[in-house]
């Protein structure tokens, strides 16, 4: 493709605090030489029209199909709820369009595999939004481990809070409490974090898991309803990585008054700790500290300031913008540097292995 700006169509863009408006639009605006957002499709033409007017876009499409069929669109961005990803991404791939889909790619492994297979058959750039992988702190952490800062990795421990999946929610997010929708604490906050975890420490070998639902109901704050919860609010996984290092993971629903993200990597020569304000590690400022050799106390181990230069200061927007930067290069140069649909399949395989292990331990899950 030439150096002309890549024309973007967004499926699922609404003014206000919605994800596409708060993360994707400012991320795209930070790359004006690469992208031009030209159109939107929502659940209705009226909704698309309101979004187009709010963001100054030339096209409001009557349907998602009309957007993907338009010759004015090069890249289709899908930012809707997980249960709709497969139905919206498939037509975009069939139309030969490049795609950026939010994580999770599909509602389960089978959907993700089908999308990845089609994307490869069509030869398009198909990227998934596992943006923790491009956070400067995670790239720096990967380099530290590869360079032997901790020596041989012996073990790692990860503890995090999901934020949602506590005792209450609002109507807009109530779908997260129904596990059939594929938007669980396992798949979203832990799934995002595992994408970065795997980049740093490699893939999982053997594992054993438990999925426990301690909160059977959720209070809907804006309607006063009480609904049943079928998504586990406790995820426990332990075992060995392919490297042989031991690992232990515990994610909890809600927000803790204590630790909300702690990832420790212990090695033969040192230790590294990564902390943050939320178990959604892709959305918060990460702090990296470590000690190696004769050092007895942890010291800051943050990436150089140059890693942040030229990118938005906001953590969420900056990480999404980095994904878009990779996508632009892939489209123009024929590379495949952005997190891909095939990468997403590998992550879905890990989640399915966790679910299988948990089901074997407790068939009622």
Can you describe this structure in just a few lines?
This protein has helices spanning 19-29, 45-55, 64-69, 85-94, 109-122, 136-146, 186-201, 315-333, 341-361; strands at residues 6-11, 35-41, 59-61, 75-78, 98-102, 126-129, 153-161, 168-169, 204-212, 217-220, 226-228, 234-241, 246-252, 261-267, 270-275, 287-292, 299-300.
Give an account of the 3D structure.
- By secondary structure, the protein is α/β, with parallel strands linked by helices.
- The chain folds into two domains: 6-131 and 313-339, NAD(P)-binding Rossmann-like Domain (Rossmann fold, 3-Layer(aba) Sandwich); 133-306 and 349-359, Dihydrodipicolinate Reductase, domain 2, CATH 3.30.360.10.
- Helices cover 33% and strands 25% of the residues.
- An eight-stranded mixed beta sheet has the order 9-12-13-7-14-15-16-17.
- A hairpin with a 2-residue loop joins strand 14 and strand 15 (270-275).
- The protein is globular and about 60 Å long.
- The model has no long low-confidence stretch (mean pLDDT 96).
């Amino acid at each position: 493709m030439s150096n002309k700006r890549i024309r973007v169509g967004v499926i699922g863009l609404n003014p206000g605090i919605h994800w596409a408006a708060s993360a994707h639009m400012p991320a795209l605006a930070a790359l004006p030489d690469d992208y031009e957002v030209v159109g939107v499709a929502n659940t209705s033409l009226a909704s698309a029209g309101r979004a187009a007017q709010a963001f100054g876009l030339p096209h409001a499409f009557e349907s998602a199909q009309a957007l993907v069929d338009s010759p004015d669109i090069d890249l289709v961005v899908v930012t809707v709820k997980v249960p709709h990803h497969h139905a919206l991404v498939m037509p975009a791939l069939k139309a030969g369009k490049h795609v950026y889909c939010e994580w999770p790619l599909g509602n389960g492994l089978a959907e993700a595999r089908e999308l990845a297979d089609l994307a490869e058959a069509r030869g398009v750039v198909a990227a998934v939004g596992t943006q923790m992988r491009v956070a400067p702190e995670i790239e720096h952490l990967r380099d530290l481990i590869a360079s032997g800062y901790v020596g041989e990795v012996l073990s790692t421990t990860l503890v995090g809070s999901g934020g949602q999946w506590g005792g209450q929610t609002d109507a807009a997010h109530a779908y997260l409490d129904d596990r059939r929708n594929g938007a669980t604490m396992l798949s979203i906050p832990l799934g995002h974090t595992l994408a970065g975890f795997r980049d740093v420490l490699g893939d999982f070998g053997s594992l054993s898991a438990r999925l426990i639902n301690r909160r059977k109901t959720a209070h809907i704050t804006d309607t006063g309803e009480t609904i049943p919860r079928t998504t586990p609010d406790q995820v426990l996984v332990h075992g060995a990585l392919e490297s042989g290092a031991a690992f232990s993971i515990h994610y909890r629903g809600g927000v803790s008054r204590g630790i909300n993200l702690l990832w420790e990597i212990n090695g033969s020569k040192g230790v590294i700790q990564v902390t943050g304000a939320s178990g959604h590690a892709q959305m918060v400022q990460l702090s990296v500290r470590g000690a190696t050799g004769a050092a007895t106390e942890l010291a800051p181990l943050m990436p150089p300031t140059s890693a942040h230069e030229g990118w938005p200061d906001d953590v969420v927007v900056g990480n999404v913008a980095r994904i878009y930067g990779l996508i632009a290069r892939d489209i123009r140069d024929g590379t495949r540097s952005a997190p891909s649909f095939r990468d997403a399949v590998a992550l879905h395989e890990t989640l399915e292995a966790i679910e299988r292990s948990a089901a074997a331990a407790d068939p009622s899950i």
